[in-house]
């Protein structure tokens, strides 16, 4: 053992002592700083110093980020969790969070994971009084993918066991555009409730527009733009989204797109005469 290596008994004591917050990541920083560079990497020139500094700083930064991710997540009983209308046992808002406001009108069920950089909002601005309660409801055992947005103004209901890919956008409000003499953003918005049924899966980049109602166990293809009502047990995809597969107990899964019938070309008159 070299003089620069941490003593094993000291490392074990730090890891086992409940009074210290030392973690494996933090110990890795100590090892990186104290571990000597192999002889074949030692250069008498000063050009090796930036590489060494980058190595040490990189280890420290990743250790700090890991510590922040572990300790910055919001769980039941945390101060930020108590701001929500309800926050179920076993649920978690991962770190870093996106824009989150209007928590008083947001319900999160049990064992639900809200991924990193997800934005949840009720209303246009923090502190806005809402006319419905809850405005945003996310059920039990859901998983909302990284970078997604759930923006509620009247009613967005996400059922139980709903999973989404990253960067999904769900909203119940559109701006009006009826008056051609007014800019769109200054016209009165339209709020229409959104419902996403139990057990559904929304692929990466899906956009769910106001008035959408998805049944149970609906699969939405990546990049689809959804508006309208869709039945249980179907696959929808496209812009705008439409049903491409449908399940019924009698037929099982069947394609909902009718194949094109072959075009019959009648023979020309000269072909008939030569036959």
| Global geometry | globular
Taken as a percent bin, the fraction of beta residues is 15-25%
Distance between the termini: 98 Å
Broad structural category:
alpha/beta
Number of helices: 4
Residues in helices, as a percent range = 10-25%
Oligomer: single chain
Rg over C-alpha atoms, rounded to the nearest angstrom: 28 Å
Number of strands: 24
Strand order of the largest sheet: 1-4-7-10-15-18-21
**Which spans have pLDDT < 50 for at least 5 consecutive residues?**
1-6, 10-22
Description of the structure:
- Helix content is 19%, strand content 25%.
- With 275 residues, it is α/β, with parallel strands linked by helices.
- The strands form five sheets. Strands 1-4-7-10-15-18-21 form a seven-stranded parallel sheet, with no helix packed on it. A six-stranded parallel sheet has the order 3-6-9-12-17-20, with no helix packed on it. It has a six-stranded mixed sheet with strand order 11-16-19-22-23-24, with no helix packed on it.
- Strand 22 and strand 23 form a beta hairpin.
- Helix 2 runs antiparallel to helix 3.
- The longest helix is centred in the N-terminal third of the chain and has 25 residues.
- The radius of gyration is 28 Å and the shape is globular.
Brief summary of the model shown:
With 275 residues, the chain is of the alpha/beta class.
Question: What key phrases describe this protein's structure?
Answer:
seven-stranded parallel sheet, alpha/beta, 275 residues, disordered N terminus
């Amino acid at each position: 053992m070299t003089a620069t290596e941490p003593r094993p008994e000291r490392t074990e004591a730090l890891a086992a002592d409940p009074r210290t917050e030392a973690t494996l990541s933090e110990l890795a920083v100590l090892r990186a700083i104290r571990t000597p560079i192999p002889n074949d990497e030692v250069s008498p020139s000063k050009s090796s110093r930036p590489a060494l500094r980058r190595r040490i700083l990189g280890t420290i930064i990743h250790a700090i980020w890991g510590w922040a991710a572990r300790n910055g997540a919001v769980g039941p009983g945390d101060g930020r969790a108590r701001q929500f209308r309800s926050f179920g046992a076993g649920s978690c808002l991962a770190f870093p969070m996106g824009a989150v406001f209007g928590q008083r009108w947001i319900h999160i069920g049990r064992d639900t994971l809200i991924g990193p950089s997800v934005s949840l909002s009720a209303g246009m601005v923090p502190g806005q009084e809402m006319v419905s309660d809850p405005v945003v409801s996310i059920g039990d055992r859901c998983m909302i993918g990284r970078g997604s947005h759930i923006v509620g103004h009247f009613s967005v209901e996400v059922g139980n066991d709903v999973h989404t890919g990253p960067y999904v956008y769900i909203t119940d409000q559109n701006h009006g555009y009826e008056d051609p003499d007014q800019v769109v953003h200054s016209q009165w918005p339209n709020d229409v409730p959104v419902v996403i049924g139990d057990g559904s899966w929304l692929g990466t980049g899906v956009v769910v527009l106001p008035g959408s109602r998805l049944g149970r166990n609906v699969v939405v293809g990546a990049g689809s733009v959804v508006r309208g009502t869709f039945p249980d047990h179907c696959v929808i995809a496209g812009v705008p989204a439409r049903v491409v597969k449908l399940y019924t107990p009698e037929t099982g899964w069947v394609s909902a797109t009718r194949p094109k019938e072959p075009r019959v070309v009648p023979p020309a008159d000269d072909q008939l005469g030569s036959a």
